[in-house]
TrEMBL record:
Biological-process GO terms, alphabetical: galactose catabolic process via UDP-galactose, Leloir pathway
One Pfam family cited in the UniProt record for this chain: GalP_UDP_transf
Family named by the database record: Belongs to the galactose-1-phosphate uridylyltransferase type 1 family.
EC number: 2.7.7.12
Protein name as it appears in the record: Galactose-1-phosphate uridylyltransferase
GO MF annotation, one: zinc ion binding
Gene3D superfamilies: HIT-like
Gene that this polypeptide is encoded by: galT1
Cofactor(s) for this UniProt protein: Zn(2+)
Stored CDD domains: GalT (cd00608)
GO-annotated cellular components: cytoplasm
TM ranges: none
Signal peptide as annotated in the record: none
Organism: Bifidobacterium adolescentis (strain ATCC 15703 / DSM 20083 / NCTC 11814 / E194a)
């Protein structure tokens, strides 16, 4: 395994996962994470050369009039009313979409390369893979060499701050089967995905200008997924995202008032109450929070105090893979269409981990927030006037009913 700046593999990863870095034709970072024993041992090796003739990612571009203009770097503007930074990435308008009614491409850029296939703009150089990670070709945020990151002002007015959205966006492909579902992956493959989360968290945390690392998974056409393939993403913000900022304010205020850790006390309180616990194993507890917003919502917390994914030990990474697999399977079974087969649940799985530099990080705690806006087999939860206009949530169910349904789907105690 290659040496990396900040990532140190545990005993399992040293023996069973091989990380091979390379660079794509336009200069983006790319990593293979192999769990196939033949690749781990070095008997087989991956294709490292990207055969596409792509221009350098930050080279000048042609506008609609055919004129050469500088690379359209994403910028971000601060909302004076909320203080939130809003990234704006016009280049994303041209990204390929292969899922849903707005599909613009037939090929799948996340699939392994297929010799002879007419679509040859895929991101993976090899004809097969286990797990891969690479920088997004159409990023919402990216650091551009030589471009100033100083604060400027829209129309010269100090009310409206703007600056380069100098973050980083990566894609994690969970499996080469482009028609597969994350819920159907073996636990051993999800263990490699967990390693990918930890690997990227460790490495990116040492990159200049990054304040928060957010691994997440969007799944399902209804969520807005543009590429039908089992994959997730890692957004690396050059600021603290609004939801994290709100949580940090609450966790810090709680610590100042009680001396305790709010996230730990919430977990322990849920364990004491018992009613909303839906799964647990040696290292993790999953529960429906007492103030759940979504019609299906589960939070997953480590038993041990952990700030970030890269701090998890081998046992915790294995137990997480087991719990995540179980959660995805039970999520798919949650809504009954009448045939007893459940459905492919649209969901978002969002990792909340301590920010990198913010002094409040020590009073935070790693947690996964898993949710779906589906509220019945044939209904979704629309974020209408109150939710979208005022961020004042109105729930269509109760946390206890959500937990009761999960209890019907399997035992609370799972092997790990």
């Amino acid at each position: 395994m290659s040496d990396f700046v900040n990532y140190t593999p545990g005993e399992y990863a040293k023996e069973h996962i091989r990380i091979t870095p390379t660079t794509l034709a336009d200069g983006r970072d790319f990593f293979y994470l192999d769990d196939d024993p033949e690749y781990v041992s070095g008997v087989k090796t991956r294709e490292l050369k990207d055969p596409r003739q792509l221009p350098y990612r930050f080279s000048n571009q042609l506008n609609a009039a055919g004129e050469e203009v500088p690379y359209a770097a994403p910028e971000m503007r601060r909302d004076p009313l909320t203080g939130d930074w809003i990234p704006m990435a016009t280049a994303r308008m041209n990204r390929p979409i292969t899922a849903g009614p707005g599909a613009t491409a037939k090929g799948n850029p996340l699939a392994a390369r297929k010799p002879g296939d007419p679509y040859q703009d895929g991101e993976v150089p090899d004809t097969d893979y286990n797990v891969v990670v690479f920088e997004n070709r159409f990023p919402s945020m990216v650091r551009v060499p030589g471009r100033s990151e100083a604060v400027e002002y829209v129309n010269g007015n100090p009310l409206w701050e703007k600056k380069l959205a100098a973050g980083r966006c990566e894609v994690i492909c969970f499996d080469p089967d482009e028609n597969g579902l994350p819920a159907d992956l073996p636990v051993s493959r999800l263990r490699t995905v967990v390693e990918a989360w930890a690997f990227r968290t460790a490495e990116i945390s040492k990159m200049e200008g990054i304040e928060q690392i957010f691994p997440f998974e969007n799944h399902g056409q209804e969520i807005g997924v543009s590429l039908a393939h089992p994959h997730g993403q890692v957004y690396c913000y050059p600021f603290i995202a609004p939801k994290m900022e709100a949580e940090l304010k609450q966790t810090e205020a709680y610590h100042e008032k009680t001396g305790g850790n709010l996230l730990k006390d919430l977990m322990n309180s849920e364990i004491e109450a018992g009613e909303r616990i839906v799964m647990r194993n040696h290292s993790w507890v999953a529960y429906v929070p007492a103030a759940a917003r979504w019609p299906l919502e589960v939070h997953v917390a480590p038993v041990r105090d952990v700030l970030t994914l890269d701090e998890l030990n081998d046992q915790e990474r294995w137990d997480l893979a087991v719990m995540y697999s179980t959660l995805l399977k039970r999520g798919n079974a949650f809504f009954d269409k009448g045939d007893g087969k459940g459905m492919d649940l649209p969901y978002i799985a969002a990792w909340h981990q301590a920010p990198i530099h913010d002094k409040r990080r020590e009073n935070y705690r790693l947690n996964l927030q898993f949710f779906s806006f589906r509220r019945a087999a044939n209904k979704i939860k629309y974020l209408a006037g109150s939710e979208s206009g005022m961020a004042a949530w109105v729930s269509d169910t109760t946390p206890e009913l959500i937990a009761k349904r999960f209890h019907e789907l399997g035992p609370i105690d799972i092997e790990g």
